């Protein structure tokens, strides 16, 4: 018998598992709306032109592949913090942001979770209900205790703002409140600027620490600054903030695993101390791509234009889906929630049995919480999807 026998298989990942099932389906109309990855109108993966350019420049430069420092590439850390907080932000000018390059959003969140577990023993992390599926895994893995705050109201397919505020108020003083900086995953429902202000009030009152997960900066509205407004508002109030960034979506660098963890008003040593025994130092390629694009005004402009194009395509699909649903559905149901949502996803409000119908009858692959990725949808497929949703609802 193997001494490794006691190691059980991890349960299949609910999102990655959807792609596996999609691959196994041979139906010609099949649609993969599970994974949150940008596709072209032809439903093909997309490498940004600006990334291809940066890659070419890097190849020409022929830099060495020596180890990076534990905290990552200095040029990357500088620009990534500037991108999030804004170059002119006092916390940037006063060098009050400690940035450590992480293994994309997930690895950066995992570092933050380890930091919380080690330096804030017993402190609770509050996550939204629902949230991105991996949040719970990350905090479980780090042994950082977590609980949920209300977020989604199924009656309105909107924000349960009162529930959210009440739960944040009720959390033990000094808790970490995990917030999606923009384009909440999976609901696509963001607080309004006024609601953000009230959330900041309560967090401040209770001496909580805001902990942002911002995986879609520039991808939600098409503007990097607009999408970072929530984070910047908290920082402008003088609060200490943790923020995990990802370049998977906005630069299409999914597999390069490039992101960062920022701590406003703290020392970088703590996070670097955690990284050394975990993986020593992060990979260099994605960091160089980001540093070159964000640090060069011509490439930066090009990136912004491509990001606007991607965000624009998703918005067009959102509108077309809404139009198709509204014109095809004769039941009088109000579909306007589709338009109110933002970012890559739409939360349809379909329950598990209805999601099963979507997949089994219509070959539409999606997570069982009713979330669909609009980035995996084309204008040409909106009518088909609307038929599937209406059939599954009624
Ligand atoms: N946070 C949220 C809310 C996400 O949606 C994602 C991507 N699905 C991530 C973090 C992390 O992704 P990655 O590790 O590829 O940066």
TrEMBL record:
Per the UniProt record, one Pfam family is Aminotran_1_2
- CDD domains in the cross-refs: AAT_like (cd00609)
Q: Which PROSITE patterns match?
A: AA_TRANSFER_CLASS_1
Keyword Transferase listed? The answer is yes
* Alphabetical UniProt keywords: Aminotransferase, Pyridoxal phosphate, Transferase
Has keyword Transferase? yes
Q: Which domain of life is it from?
A: Eukaryota
Q: Which residues form the signal peptide?
A: none
**Domain Aminotransferase class I/classII large: from-to ranges:** 30-389
Q: Which cofactor does it need?
A: pyridoxal 5'-phosphate
Q: Which InterPro entries would you find in this protein's record?
A: Aminotransferase_I/II_large, Asp_trans, NHTrfase_class1_PyrdxlP-BS, PyrdxlP-dep_Trfase, PyrdxlP-dep_Trfase_major, PyrdxlP-dep_Trfase_small
Q: What is its EC number?
A: 2.6.1.1
Describe the reaction catalysed, as an equation: L-aspartate + 2-oxoglutarate = oxaloacetate + L-glutamate
Database matches in PANTHER family: ASPARTATE AMINOTRANSFERASE, ASPARTATE AMINOTRANSFERASE, CYTOPLASMIC
Q: Which NCBIfam families match?
A: PRK09257.1 (NF006719)
Subunit and partners: Homodimer.
Family the entry assigns: Belongs to the class-I pyridoxal-phosphate-dependent aminotransferase family.
Additional free-text comment from the UniProt record:
In eukaryotes there are cytoplasmic, mitochondrial and chloroplastic isozymes.
Q: What is the name attached to this protein's record?
A: Aspartate aminotransferase
């Amino acid at each position: 018998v193997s001494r490794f026998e006691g190691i059980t298989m991890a349960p299949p990942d609910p999102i990655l598992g959807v792609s596996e099932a999609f691959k196994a389906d041979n139906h010609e109309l099949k649609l993969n709306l599970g994974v949150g990855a940008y596709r072209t109108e032809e439903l093909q993966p997309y490498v940004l032109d600006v990334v291809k350019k940066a890659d070419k420049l890097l190849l020409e430069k022929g830099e060495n592949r020596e180890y990076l420092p534990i905290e990552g590439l200095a040029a990357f850390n500088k620009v990534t913090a500037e991108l999030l907080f804004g170059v002119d932000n006092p916390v940037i000018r006063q060098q009050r942001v400690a940035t450590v390059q992480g293994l994309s959003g997930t690895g950066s969140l995992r570092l933050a979770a380890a930091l919380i577990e080690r330096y804030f023993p017993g402190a609770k992390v509050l996550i939204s209900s629902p949230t991105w599926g991996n949040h719970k895994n990350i905090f479980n893995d780090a042994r950082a205790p977590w609980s949920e705050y209300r977020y989604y109201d199924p009656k309105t397919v909107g924000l349960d703002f009162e529930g959210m505020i009440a739960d944040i108020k009720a959390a033990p003083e000094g808790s970490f409140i995990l917030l999606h900086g923009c384009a909440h995953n999976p609901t696509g429902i963001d607080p309004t600027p006024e609601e953000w202000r009230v959330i900041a009030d309560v967090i401040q009152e209770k001496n909580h620490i805001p902990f942002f997960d911002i995986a879609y900066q520039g991808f939600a509205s098409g503007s990097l600054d607009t999408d970072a407004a929530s984070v910047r508002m908290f920082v402008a109030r003088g609060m200490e903030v943790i923020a995990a960034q990802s370049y998977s979506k906005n630069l299409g660098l999914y597999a390069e695993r490039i992101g960062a963890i920022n701590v406003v008003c703290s020392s970088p040593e703590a996070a670097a101390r955690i990284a050394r025994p975990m993986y020593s130092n992060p990979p260099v390629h994605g960091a160089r791509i980001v540093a070159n694009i964000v640090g060069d005004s011509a490439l930066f402009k090009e990136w912004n234009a491509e990001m606007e194009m991607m965000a624009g395509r998703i918005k067009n699909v959102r509108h077309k889906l809404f139009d198709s649903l509204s014109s095809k559905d004769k039941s009088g149901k109000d579909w306007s929630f589709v338009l109110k949502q933002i970012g890559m996803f739409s939360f349809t409000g379909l329950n598990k049995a209805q999601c099963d119908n979507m997949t089994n009858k219509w070959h539409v692959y999606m997570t069982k919480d009713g979330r669909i990725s609009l980035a995996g949808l084309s204008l040409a497929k909106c009518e088909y999807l609307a038929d599937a949703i209406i059939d599954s609802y009624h």
